[in-house]
Amino acid sequence: MKGNLYIEQILKDADLEALIQQSSQRLRLRAMCIENSALNTTEVELSCRLAFLLIGASFGENTNSAWADYAYKLLKNISVNNENDINVFNQIMGYDLEDPLLVYYFYLSSLALRLDKTISARLDLKEYEYQDKQETSWSNRVLAGIFRALFFLIRKSNGFSDIRKAIEEISTLQKEQIEFEEQYLSSFDTQVQTKEAMILVGLYHTSKAITEMPDYLIKGYSYKKRINVVIRQHIDIALDFIPKDERLRDFIYIINKDLIITCS
Amino acid sequence: MPGRGIDAIGYRMDKSKTNILIGEAKVSAQKSNPPSVVDANKDSIYQTQKTYHDNEGIVVQRLSDYVRRLSVSSEHFIAIAGVVINMAKGDSDKYEITYGCGLVRDFNCVDESKDFGKMKALVHEFKPGNVEFVIFSFTEKTIDETVELFYQKVKELAQ
Questions:
Q1: How many CA atoms lie within 13 A of A222 on its CB side?
Q2: CA-to-CA distance for A258 and B158, rounded, in angstroms?
């Protein structure tokens, strides 16, 4: 049975249909500023599991756009202020980052962009609060910086303020690189060191794709290059340097889609 | 997945349900039959698979950890993430579990009539799941050479 048929079969389940309907209803009430009652842990857990599956299906080929819509609504069931909800999310779809909300907002805003809901993406990201949680590993620190810079570029609030913040985020990483990179790599044996160094180069190219965006947005018509091509080149190199870490490749692939939508 | 609980994970999808394989592998050159890694040790194949059978919550947790490392758009991810949803909901009519067991044996001490131990004698304890037990033993190969053959194949497949 093919993956898409399998997902359709799963979605026929009465409990899951009810959960999706309930999620839509909750979102409508929220839009009318009516506060919803909190979901119990089982409902949050099921929302996360189903959202994760549907995110996978949404970014694959021959996708059904309804799946991205369901995934978006299910993710909105998670209360970002509730520690239990965030722990459940992190266990099911996190990426071992100190700030699990980075992955949450990344998926939420990427789904919104995919659904042509740019305004929703911006509003969702306005809720994101910078967590003062330093990532312990340098590669995760770079990834966290990439996510934050991307959020600022999608959000674009307060005129050029967010664009400046995106540039700052990446330039901070560039300054920190001297201090952290060598120390990080020397903690591995030679074989792992090569693999980790390649992952870092892949992440640096992803950050280059991101920093191209502010340049494009600030220069406007005087930007002389083809932004899509420049982004694509950096992303292709990044993916070449990270052949094995499937989840990280996914993030980069989705970042590419987000950037292309954001600059179009 | 060495060190992460489940040694091997597989799946087979058909029209009505998905069959998920939970694999546990051990190596033994012990002369007795079955060797203690099959059903006597605390972390024997039997004890480990029994834990998975009696507590599907652990299986859900281990499979969740596994899918978090996969590409979300791969068919592998979709198949296993779907099974995890059905398991977490307790919809046992939508999936089947195969408890896969692999035993690497020195050809000098292998006994195919005894080495399955409790995995054969108490196979009913794993119902409604299925048990598949494979003994890897090659004549004229020591156990270390057999393990080496196995890892070479894994490396080849992983490249």
A1: 4
A2: 30
ipTM of the complex: 0.86
Q: Find tokens 């549907």 and name the residue.
A: A54
Residues 4-63 of A with CB under 8 A from B: 6-7, 10, 13, 15-16, 45-46, 49-50, 52-53, 55-57, 59-61
Using an 8 Å CB-CB cutoff, list chain B residues near A92.
64, 68
Where are the domains positioned within chain A?
A: 135-264
**What are the b/e assignments for A63-102, b being 16+ CB within 10 Å?**
beeebbbbbbbbbbbbebeeeebbebbbebbbbebebbbb
Say whether B81 and A95 touch across the interface (CB within 8 A): no
- Condensed to tens digits (0 to 9), the pLDDT of residues B75-120 reads 889 999 999 999 999 999 999 999 999 998 888 888 889 999 999 9
pLDDT tens per residue, range A129-159:
777 778 889 999 999 999 999 999 998 887 7
A198 burial (CB, 10 Å; 0-12 / 13-18 / 19+) is middle
Q: What is the pLDDT of residue A1?
A: 59
Using an 8 Å Cβ cutoff, are A207 and A170 in contact?
A: yes
Give the residue extent of every domain in chain B. Answer: 8-158
